[in-house]
Hints:
Layout: E1 2-6, H1 20-27, E2 32-36, E3 50-51, E4 61-62, H2 64-72, E5 80-91, H3 94-103, E6 106-111, E7 127-130, H4 140-151, E8 184-185, E9 188-189, H5 199-217, H6 219-235
Helix pairs in contact: 3-4, 5-6
Amino acid sequence: MRLDVITLFPDFFTSPLSGGLLGKALNKGIAQVNLVNPRDFSESKHKKVDDEPYGGGVGMLLKPEPIFAAVESLPQLPKREVVLMSPQGRPLSQSILQILADQTEQIVIICGQYEGVDERVSHLVTQEISLGDFVLTCGEIPALALINGVIRLLPGTVGNEASLKGESFAQGLLDYPQYTRPSVFRNLEVPAVLLSGNHREIEIWREREQIERTKKRRPDLWEKWLDLHNSVQENL
């Protein structure tokens, strides 16, 4: 997997990409992250990459020329997505991450800045993605979340890949509660079923807890899961 990041602040990614699972995955060649600064493609004397919006308004916009030049300087693999990190995009989800991990060879990520980018940049983009309905100071923060979420799904990144299947959102539900030693801490006890050794009973308990937790904490997810579950049952 090749990830090309169009960013005015490449140093932002240095530390997060050098440690932990991401650092190990990059060192093993599971993924490659290439940082490209659009200032390097600016033709102005002072490497200017932004300007005032036509029609007036507050703030500055990223100019199209450096971004187009930066993206066009990259090699193009057959299965490529060009993603603009923008609060106007689709909210990032586990399903989006899984599709990107499974179906792409290259992801080009454009990090927005200031008041956004010139609308003509959309002609380069195959999809816009957001972290949610809020605004951040820069596109590097959601870009890093996207990079992290995709790379951890690539084979070889996570040691026990079976753990990916049971985590939150993987099956449309939140994860079940988990405990470790000691079995009693400040009078708070681990549920007895988890100490029983009965794997079938543990599985039933976990499924029940996933459902109850999702219904309580994320009723929106619960409704989606119910709709999907009922649709599948109707088609059987």
